[in-house]
Design a protein that fits this description.
alpha/beta, four-stranded parallel beta sheet, 13 helices
Length: 303
């Protein structure tokens, strides 16, 4: 019955605390329990199973194979993470709760390597893999350890809640959101030299003040440390073609950069990004044009 109560509370959170009759709530809970076994409910709604083994294992992998120059205590980092989350309600973990954990894992990176993004996650990873000098938030130790994980604690318990965690949108002080907010702030504050921002021109508001880039990272960038903000706008091959460097919310971003004293560049025709898209869809007409252009250039080179 304890799990049923937690599931019911979680469903109420996901309904946005709307006024639902007890009868309808009970029907909803039992309908979900009928469709899914308890194990599936825990996996979908609660803290990621085996989270300690995953986080600590990723930490050791990072300091051993990814960045061996770091001398950090993975067990201490986990202890600070656990201290921040457990015995806290699911909507009462602030950025400040994670301060000591981040103190235990300081990290710096050379300039000219910072890549920011919004609504372009899949393409961003492909781009960073090809242009190897780029460094994203997911490449930091914090990003590497906690990427794609879910967690929340219980106010009256010393452990994690594996049955039910609210969605990010349910509350501002969500334990997952607060960690990523601080990680994003630290990443942006560390940025220096020429940085790159990858935005999706196939959606309305490619630049949004509500996104992590727009609400946290942009305000944390320093015009004294950053030489140029290089904006790259990319659209889907088949469209829609909504925003460009001169249209839509990108113009708002440029205006903010100018008002804060940043120098900037912007392109919506980056050839590397287009080639990466064409690898996934080589038969698209735009890709044929690109291939012909590259073949022509190659022919000119070897004449």
């Amino acid at each position: 019955m304890e799990n049923v109560s937690r599931i019911k509370a979680c469903i109420n959170l996901r309904l946005g605390h709307s006024r639902v009759s007890p009868f309808k709530t009970s029907v909803t809970v039992w309908f979900f329990m009928f469709l899914l076994c308890p194990g599936q409910l825990r996996a979908q709604l609660g803290t990621t199973a085996n989270i300690k083994h995953i986080v600590v294992g990723r930490c050791y992998n990072y300091i051993t194979l990814v960045n061996p120059s770091l001398r950090l205590d993975c067990e201490e980092i986990w202890r600070q993470f656990e201290e921040a989350v457990v015995r806290q309600s699911s909507c009462n973990v602030t950025v400040e709760h994670y301060r000591y954990m981040f103190y235990a894992m300081p990290q710096t990176w050379p300039c000219d390597r910072f890549l920011f993004w919004s609504k372009t996650r899949t393409l961003m990873h492909s781009y960073a893999a090809v242009v190897r000098h780029f460094w994203t938030l997911e490449d930091t130790l914090a990003g590497y350890m906690f990427n794609d994980l879910i967690w929340c604690g219980q106010e009256k318990d010393s452990g994690f809640d594996f049955s039910c965690c609210p969605e990010w949108s349910a509350c501002r002080n969500h334990p997952v959101y607060s960690l990523w907010r601080l990680a994003s702030q630290n990443f942006a504050e560390m940025a220096c030299g020429n940085i790159t921002v990858l935005l999706n021109g196939s959606i309305v508001n490619a630049f949004s003040r509500k996104s992590m880039f727009g609400s946290v990272e942009l305000d944390s960038l320093s015009p004294q440390r950053v030489n140029y903000v290089n904006i790259k706008v990319v659209t889907n091959l088949e469209g829609p073609f909504i925003e460009t460097c001169s249209e839509g919310s990108i113009a708002d971003l440029i205006q903010i950069l100018q008002s804060r004293g940043f120098r900037w560049t912007c392109t919506d025709k980056d050839q590397t990004l287009m080639i990466l898209q064409c690898i996934q869809n080589p038969q698209h007409s735009s890709c044929q044009t690109c291939a012909n252009s590259l073949s022509h250039r190659k022919g000119l080179t070897f004449k």
